[in-house]
Amino acid sequence: QVLLKSDAPTGDVLLDETLRHIKATEAAETVQTWIELLTGETWNPFKLQYQLRNVRERLAKALVEKGILTTEKQNFLLFDMTTHPVCNASEKQRLLRRLQESVLERWVNDPQRMERRTLALLVLAHASDVLENVFASLADDKYDVAMNRTKDLLDMDPEVEAAKARGTEMIWAVLAAFNK
């Protein structure tokens, strides 16, 4: 279950809104429930007040403001649809290199010693089913090493790793929720 340690503002609109929702809940909810609520994937009418509105659009808008994405209209037969293609390919490449280097050159073989942001990115790439794309540009031997190391990491017991703490409990809880 998710328990709020602090409701101090983070400076990020979506995170602060999430903290307000978590604080407002009567009983503690599970990570799985919060994922469903915060992504708008729940149909529980009693929980609708805890949903974040327009999450994808708000995230895309923030990335447009940072110059990473751009906004375009594409015509799909009868209707126009707003899309957000990457306009800053160097930022995308930097992120891909960061993940590749973390499992190849800076591999620590211990998630407790891994940088939290990198661990979170690997978990989210896995949950989004884009992890293979991260390593696709590597040579075959490096690709195999990267995928095997990442698989070993993702196959660890989230409860055991979360118990070791160091501020990664939520990352491991998210992995456990996606592995169900």
Automatic annotation (TrEMBL):
GO terms for molecular function: phosphatidylinositol-4-phosphate binding. GO terms for cellular component: cytosol; Golgi cisterna membrane; Golgi membrane; trans-Golgi network. Keywords: Golgi apparatus, Lipid-binding, Membrane. It is a peripheral membrane protein. The keyword Membrane applies. GO terms for biological process: Golgi organization; Golgi to plasma membrane protein transport; Golgi vesicle budding; retrograde vesicle-mediated transport, Golgi to endoplasmic reticulum. InterPro entries: GPP34-like, GPP34-like_sf. It is found in: Golgi apparatus, Golgi stack membrane; Golgi apparatus, trans-Golgi network membrane. This is GLP3L protein. It comes from Cisticola juncidis. The gene is Golph3l.
